[in-house]
Design a protein that fits this description.
2 copies of one chain form a homodimer. The first copy, chain A, has 334 residues and is α/β, with parallel strands linked by helices. The first copy, chain A, folds into 3 domains: 44 residues, 434 Repressor (Amino-terminal Domain); 126 residues, Rossmann fold (3-Layer(aba) Sandwich), CATH 3.40.50; 139 residues, Response regulator (Rossmann fold). Helices cover 46% and strands 17% of the residues of chain A. Chain A has 13 helices and 12 strands. In chain A, helix 7 links the parallel strand 3 and strand 4. In chain A, helix 1 crosses helix 2, helix 1 packs across helix 3 and helix 10 crosses helix 11. Chains A and B meet through helix 4, strand 1, helix 5, strand 2 and helix 6 of A and helix 4, strand 1, helix 5, strand 2 and helix 6 of B.
Chain lengths: 334, 334
């Protein structure tokens, strides 16, 4: 396989000049650069990233650990990251923790062994010490969609308080009074924050409005269906007139269970979801939702990370919070 | 940062023994291994994969290029790959071509620069020459879900002919006679094969049964909605009594458009999709579908690739075809 010295010989320059052309093209005259490029093409030389990585001590790849690659919300975030990294010629190594701390640790081990330049993570387990160690060994870290108690890592998150409030205010403004919030487990930060904001909005609205909480054991369609079973067991008069689902997957399960039970959406019961994944707009009754700027969050996180990598000591810790947006569709009468 | 020689000194062994413990643990006695492990922990030594990679000439990571990371079918395949690779301590570098040849080439460039051990690809452009070059430079290649004219690379694919046939036979067996196939563009291999198999099944059934083809410009929910608009323009008597959608995303769009137009599924029109993504089962009217063993396909592809990597010259080229399965739900009267 062709080496730098072969390229240098064919181009009639020193190996150091070839190295400059590869790493600092502006230091080389256009003529020389063209000669070197022609030699590279002719010899089929490929720069060996392993050698460069060894000299630099790090790996240009960026590692990313997401909670659930089966949820389109996270693939939207990953696409936002990927769009930025592709421009930078940095490959994205995507790991799916599937919400299991053991898988998360496994990926962190791999990333540490690979001495990557940077890691984006939505933590599931208690990994703060691991992240500190990564950072101390030269890997930059940015948190995505989840804050930790420690504010020492830059983070990009979404404003769940605002999301919970605008969804609930929309239901109240369209005349709904008996709202049920379906989601869980309750200890998940997003569920906790959205529910608290919904409660506050109902209190501030006053009058006859009330909010009930049906806790689920997961954030998927099956959990939504199970949640509806509890509602259907109630006497018709006590049934809610609106469901606020903690995410769109739950909302899709709620829509299915209500449809199969012969209830009309939105006439009998309105539904609003959260995330605005593509499947919300293409549901049989298009679902209202709270749009999360998932793709933007990925892009902002990737750009923040690239800033930290460029200047690990100098870059200030930043906590960016992106705002969600109400999307009204037919499931709430839109 | 701690080096192998520091570990060796602390454990009271030679550097070669430390190297054996890291690379061939069975060559080292349990006692020695425990001493070395303790030294590694105490010093915080981390093996440098860049150095190892440089010596070996390749990178343990596996690159994978998928067509559309927003389609759950492909994330299911990726999860199947990931489950196998995680056991092998090999990171997965996932790239999304988004069906754009330029993005595909970009990822192949990165994978070539990184000198990866292996690449899994569902090709979109004409990349046969690129794949040959990758292979000649020591990167093993396995094709996923798509055959090329050249049979020189091992591949794992799905039996679309069988899938097209069983979906159509199911519609005919439940008394449907005017079937419309919605999907496209027609040049996509999967669309072509499924449609041809559907036509054949209708011909063999004989009688009054007929099949019409409505070509779409994409394989998503929006295309399904657009396809239904053409059907709704027909006089009621000429309307089909069944839709065979080329994938589940299209089927979801069809279900939505029919529901919003006041048509009943399955009473007026039955729908069957293809892939059996999670969203098919959780649609408002649960969708019948052709289940593709996506996760299995990913696992088989990963294991095939690992076999080729272990013995690039000796391993026989293999073409595995996995069988789909009919899943009957309410949208076809199940």
């Amino acid at each position: 396989m062709a080496q730098v010295r072969d390229v240098a010989a064919l181009a009639g320059v020193s190996p150091a000049t070839v190295s400059n052309a590869l790493n600092h093209p502006s230091k080389v005259s256009p003529d020389t650069f063209a000669r070197i490029q022609a030699a590279i093409d002719e010899l089929g030389y490929i720069r060996n990233d392993a050698a460069r990585q060894l000299r630099a001590g790090t790996n240009r790849a960026i590692g990313m650990i997401v909670l659930d690659i089966g949820n389109p919300f996270f693939t939207d975030v990953a696409r936002g990251v990927e769009d930025v990294l592709l421009d930078q010629q940095r490959p994205l190594i995507l790991g799916n923790s599937a919400q299991q701390p053991a898988r998360e640790t496994n990926y962190l081990d791999l990333f540490e062994q690979q001495r990557m330049d940077g890691v984006l993570i939505t933590p599931v387990g208690d990994v703060l010490d691991r992240l500190r160690r990564l950072r101390d060994r030269g890997t930059s870290v940015v948190l995505v969609d989840r804050m930790t108690r420690a504010k020492e890592f830059s983070s990009v998150a979404l404003d769940d308080k605002m999301g919970g409030r605008i969804a609930t205010e929309h239901l109240l403004a369209t005349g709904r009074e008996r709202i049920v919030f379906i989601g869980g487990p309750a200890k998940i930060t997003q569920v906790k924050t959205r529910l608290a904001a919904a409660r506050l909005a109902v209190e501030q609205h006053g009058g006859a409005a009330e909010l009930t909480f049906v806790e689920t054991d997961a954030m998927n369609a099956e959990a939504g269906r199970a949640g509806v079973e509890q509602l259907l067991a109630l006497p018709a008069k006590q049934r809610p007139d609106a469901v606020f689902a903690a995410n769109d997957l739950i909302a899709l399960g709620v829509l299915q269970a209500l449809t199969l039970a012969g209830l009309r959406v939105p006439d009998d019961i309105a539904i609003i979801g959260y995330d605005d994944i593509d499947f919300a707009a293409s549901a049989a009754i298009p679902l209202s939702s709270v749009r999360q700027p998932a793709h933007d969050m990925g892009s902002v996180a990737a750009r923040t990370l690239i800033g930290v990598i460029a200047d690990p000591a100098g870059s200030k810790v930043q906590h960016v919070t992106l705002k969600p947006q109400l999307v009204v569709r037919r499931s709430t009468g839109g």
